[in-house]
Amino acid sequence: MALKISIITPTFNSSPFIIDNMQSVRRQVYTNWEQIIVDGASTDDTLAKIKTLSPAGTKVVSEPDEGIYEAMNKGIALAEGDVVGFLNSDDFYAHDQVLAKIASIMADTSVDACYADLDYVDKCDTQKITRMWRSQPYRDGLFEKGWMPAHPTFYVRRDILNRSGGFDLAFPRQADFELCMRLMAKYRIQTRYYKDVWVKMRTGGTSNNSLSGVLKGNLEAYRACRKNQLQINVMFIPIKIASRIPQFVAAFLHRPIG
């Protein structure tokens, strides 16, 4: 039986971009998926737009929540797929083969999770790449240097996710970093990196939309390392911030001249 993929999408007043998100899921050539949309009681027309495009296989729940990671945990509880991933409401798949590639990788039962690359794009002009997040195969010591896989490309077996307890809400900005660290560095699950852009992410996320947000997010990442007993030093935060510089440089060099 074909592996089923659960795609969890948290939304709140996501009217401008939710259609792009859902259409990118519907365009996938691999069809054994479910999309679980967890809405935080939007006050705009997000739900109306979702209703116009909800095919079979889409679950929608709308109720107040305490933020994106609580919404993701609700989605995990509703998921029925063999593998679970997260596609935020203003993000979309880079091409129509993403789920097919995930299914192919995860057909190998020795693999617990897989991940790939991500492009940050301009909020209005999604052809304009502003940052290129290129990952690498995991090895010991990477999280201590501030590394993490691009979380919107991270797909993990549902039973492992359930046993892990999901996102730790004590980290409102960096729960994705903490979860990936916990799974990969602490529990040592078997992961596979695939060199390809799977997700386009519009700029302006919760943890990277201001200098204050960046600093708070990195302090949370430091706490997450300590909680999971990783050996880090006082240079952790500067190194983590500096690790983003090549991503911006790569995007700048990628821009067409003229």
Query: What's the main sheet like?
Result: 9 strands, mixed
Distance between the termini: 51 Å
Looking at the overall shape, the CATH architecture is: Alpha-Beta Complex
| DSSP strand tally | 9
Pfam family, one: Glycos_transf_2
GO molecular function, one term: hexosyltransferase activity
Protein name: Glycosyltransferase family 2 protein
InterPro entries: Glyco_trans_2-like (IPR001173), Nucleotide-diphossugar_trans (IPR029044)
Question: What can you tell me about this protein's structure?
Answer:
By secondary structure, the chain is α/β, with parallel strands linked by helices. It has a single domain (5-254), classed as Spore Coat Polysaccharide Biosynthesis Protein SpsA, Chain A (Alpha-Beta Complex). 35% of the residues lie in helices and 21% in strands. The chain has 9 helices and 9 strands. Strands 1, 2, 3, 4, 5, 6, 7, 8 and 9 form a 9-stranded mixed beta sheet that branches. Helix 1 (18-26) packs parallel to helix 2 (46-53). The N and C termini lie far apart (51 Å). The mean pLDDT is 92.
